[in-house]
Design brief:
alpha+beta, 6-stranded mixed beta sheet, 25% strand, 9-stranded antiparallel beta sheet, single chain, 18 helices, 38 strands
Length: 857
């Protein structure tokens, strides 16, 4: 489509909405704790496991050395699992020189200790390449291998399609592995790359595994399955290993069936001789091999593209670790991707046929982030945690609905149910995959909400048959705010009207007798279950300000659907509650809890869980006068959603400064905790609650002394919104410094399980610094970056499209890469200059189009 620029000028700029803090000029190119893209070498390759796979479709991880690890495609987590044999190998001969064969990974890193040394799986004794450099730029990973004995240079680029606003093409069960081989010599080089995989579709005892060789439409490969498995077994499915790009392809459906370690020896003898696989062994095992051989001219290069695809349709709650209604534990809830493709081969064929388009669109997203001038550590944190969407934390059932654990243990999901009070913190789905965000809202306000309006914060599957547990005050309020965010980003008021009665019921559940705000004074005094897995008794800032944010969101949504009476009531409660919290909970430095006990008979049903205080009149597990890291989480979400200040801006700023002063520890070497340990020694982090200025309750709430990255990200993002740019970037940098590849996997931030959903709050750092805000119902765009240096470039996304914008030379240039942006007014402020543009009719910035607004001093 031909680009069209529309220049919009106005001499006198209209003032923008008040900003939480002044913009700052910082050196965005200065090297922080991590650079973009991030590069790992040596010992920092050890812990890397980079998820390859589609959003909510399972994953196989790429290790730092180029090995495949953590095969998590079988409907549940599978940390540490890899087939007994699953590795690539390279054979190269320059001219008439002696051929060189290596396992196409860099050398194994210490430790080397084990009951059988390193054992025999994946042939650790075969020669590997000398070194590797891993570059991580999710969704792309690149490994550059080096080996002086190899006559060619080889690198690997691996990815799976990841395209904002397209969950279908982002949810493909396929990993793309593209090896690029360059011939720097003066003679032509013959080069072969072979992949070997031991068919992992196993039974106990092992029987029935079958590998089939197939070719079609320029693709050749092996299909691996197991006809001996019951049709409905969760492991029943298939895997396809495919080669593209042509070349001389040879294959074995299986290595020689033999004793001891004869089979890998005979395979290696055959492949290392000439890079080809000779006559297929008979009988053979289930270790299939596929080799592609090419001749590369001097100074030229060639690509060897392999696809790994899978299809395992029989997801059940019991198998993956999700709680089900009684009697439904083994019900097949399925996988959405499996409804699209009859086999793994079909999934691979779809990718092969559309690879150019899928790759181009994925690269457009990666480039939009790479070319941004947002400090690299903020971008790196945001993008690294998007990998959680491709981990086993997330899945889509056969009906297309999106679901998420909190995180995952090594072999089962951890904390099922799209847990509202955890998923509230993340903001990536609303901006990048709006339909998945709406799916989460559908669950929360659907059967999970009972007739009284209590949102049972963990969804059972299959849905619509039973509820479990009770309501969480923070979870329920956060889902109301997220509903507002979804509506605001899209402008879809018809959708809002459809969900509004349930949202209204959820908000007004706070007023039930014995409930959170039974006296309807705008303050949550009641028994408030929350993300710390206990109940807070009495007014506290975390749940109280969450409530204020939900009241503001409710007010805006009520007006939009014509429910003016409710809007007025929500406004009254908001104003009254805001004043009370400022007057009664702020201690001059931060907000505190006023603990109040209640007789059990005065506590409404569905408000208490089994893990909190037994004595409701003298409750344990409270915050008290401590400084809580996420006491302002409701204001954090209000900033993301554009709902404005909920309490005094001065109090908010002072509270964030206090969190930076008290909770932020530049070293944890002397920090004592008997709880779970996610950071330690000389690492820097923000702890959950600090009691340095107050007496700690004898039995405080759980997790108070821990460190969890999701809380750190949301608080750091709030600092950025409040103008504490240096402090916010510093705190984000500290997190990513801990995930350095040597101590921890940079693509797996853990809390209660691997790939923890709350850590996707990292996306909010990018939102805060870009300060790009869109209100779809009015078509209003506001841009006021918190970094003033020019040129300024960043990514934007709404519920209808995404693209990039830049500010340079007195002009805002806003471009849509996909979808569109309907704009009635655009207001810009940057570096002392401002500009506005207003339209009588919506101006549609369509795909490939650009809007330009001139700024004036």
């Amino acid at each position: 489509m031909t680009k069209r620029r529309t220049f919009l000028k106005q001499a006198a700029a209209v003032g923008l909405a008040p900003q939480a803090g002044a913009a700052q000029h910082i050196n965005a190119s200065a090297k922080p704790a991590s650079s973009w893209p991030r590069v790992f070498e040596g010992r920092k390759l050890k812990m890397i496991a980079f998820p390859l796979g589609g959003v909510a479709a399972g994953s196989i991880s790429l290790g730092g050395r180029g090995q495949l690890r953590d095969w998590e495609i079988f409907n549940r987590p599978n940390k540490g699992y890899a087939p007994d044999y699953g590795f690539p190998a390279i054979w190269a001969q320059s001219g008439n020189g002696k051929p060189v064969a290596r396992v196409l990974e860099s050398r194994i890193l210490p430790p080397y200790e084990g009951a059988s040394g390193l054992g025999a799986s994946n042939v650790p004794g075969l020669a590997r390449l000398e070194t590797a450099t891993f570059t991580g730029e999710y969704p792309f990973a690149r490994i550059d291998f080096r080996d002086n004995a190899l006559p060619v240079k080889v690198s690997l680029e691996a990815f799976s399609p990841f395209i904002p606003h397209d969950p279908e093409e982002s949810g493909l069960p396929v990993a793309i592995l593209r090896y690029r081989v360059a011939n720097p010599g003066r003679a032509e080089a013959k080069v072969a790359i072979a992949f070997s995989i031991d068919n992992p579709v196993r039974t106990t005892p092992d029987q029935g595994r079958a590998n089939e060789y197939r070719t079609s439409d320029g693709m050749s490969g092996l299909i691996m399955n197991n006809p001996a498995l019951e049709h409905d077994h969760p492991m029943n499915g298939d895997i396809a290993l495919c080669a593209l790009d042509g070349g001389h392809v040879t294959h074995w459906r299986g290595w020689p069936k033999s004793r001891w370690w004869n089979a890998p020896m005979l395979f290696w003898d055959d492949f290392s001789d000439d890079g080809e696989l000779g006559a297929e062994p008979d009988p053979h095992s289930a270790v299939g091999s596929l080799s592609v051989k090419r001749t590369i001219a001097p100074g030229a290069s060639a690509t060897y593209t392999f696809l790994l695809a899978w299809r395992f349709p029989n997801r059940t709650p019991e198998w993956c670790g999700w709680t089900a209604p009684k009697g439904e534990e083994k019900t097949i809830i399925g996988n959405y991707y499996a409804t699209r493709f009859p086999s793994a081969w079909d999934a691979a064929a779809h990718v092969a046929a559309n690879l150019d388009s899928l790759e181009k669109r994925t690269r457009a997203f990666a480039a939009a982030i790479r070319e941004s001038t947002i400090p690299s550590v903020v971008r790196e944190a945001a993008m690294a945690n998007l990998s959680t969407l491709a981990s086993t934390t997330c899945f889509r059932t056969a009906d297309g609905e999106f679901h998420g654990f909190e995180g995952v243990n090594d072999h089962r999901g951890c904390c099922f149910g799209n847990c509202t009070h955890v998923w509230n913190y993340e903001t990536s789905t609303a901006h990048l995959f709006p339909s998945l965000a709406r799916s989460l809202r559908k669950a929360a306000f659907g059967y999970s909400m009972d007739d009284a309006g209590a949102m049972h914060f963990r969804q059972l599957l299959p849905d619509g048959k039973a509820r479990l547990g009770f309501a969480a005050a923070d979870g329920q309020m956060g889902q109301i705010i997220h509903t507002y965010l979804d509506w605001s980003l899209s402008g879809d008021t018809d959708w809002l009207r459809g969900i509004w009665p349930r949202v209204k019921k959820g908000l007004e559940f706070a007023w039930v007798p014995g409930g959170w705000d039974a006296d309807r004074d705008g303050v949550l005094e009641g028994v408030q279950h929350n993300t710390y897995d206990v109940e807070f008794y009495g007014p506290n800032p975390m749940c109280g300000i969450y409530y204020l944010s939900a009241l503001r969101a409710g007010e805006e949504m009520a007006r939009a659907v014509g429910d003016d009476a409710s809007a007025r009531e929500y406004r009254r409660l908001f104003e009254q509650g805001s004043r009370w919290i400022d007057d009664n909970l702020f201690n001059g430095e931060f907000f505190v809890q006023k603990i109040r006990g209640f007789p059990k008979d005065r506590v409404a049903g569905a408000l208490r869980g089994p893990m909190g205080a037994d004595d409701t009149e003298n409750p344990q597990y409270q915050v008290g006068d401590g400084c809580l890291v996420d006491q302002l989480v409701g204001q954090y979400l209000a900033e993301v959603a554009g709902l404005g200040p909920l309490v005094s801006r001065q109090h908010v700023r002072k509270t964030l400064e206090s969190i930076y002063q008290y909770n932020y520890k530049r070293s944890l070497a002397t920090h004592d905790t008997v709880q779970r340990t996610f950071a330690l020694n000389d690492e820097a982090a923000m702890v959950i609650c600090d009691y340095g200025k107050a007496e700690r309750p004898k039995i405080p709430f759980p997790y108070y002394a821990e460190v969890m990255t999701g809380f750190e990200y949301s608080t750091a993002a709030h600092m950025l919104y409040a103008g504490m740019v240096r402090e916010g970037i510093e705190c984000i940098g500290n997190i990513r410094a801990r995930y350095d590849g040597e101590k921890r996997n940079p693509w797996d931030e853990a809390e209660c399980g691997h790939h923890y959903a709350r850590a996707m709050a990292a996306w909010s750092g990018l939102l805060a610094l870009s300060a790009f805000r869109y209100h779809g119902p009015t078509g209003t765009v506001v841009v006021a970056p918190r970094i003033t240096q020019e040129p300024f470039r960043c990514f934007w996304a709404t519920g209808t499209g995404w693209g990039t914008f830049s500010i340079e030379g007195g002009k805002l240039k806003l471009r849509a890469i996909a979808g569109s942006l309907s704009c009635r007014s655009c207001e810009v402020r940057s570096g002392g200059k401002s500009g506005t543009a207003k339209f009588d009719q919506p101006f549609i910035v369509g795909e490939g189009r650009e809007m330009v607004v001139e700024l004036h001093a």
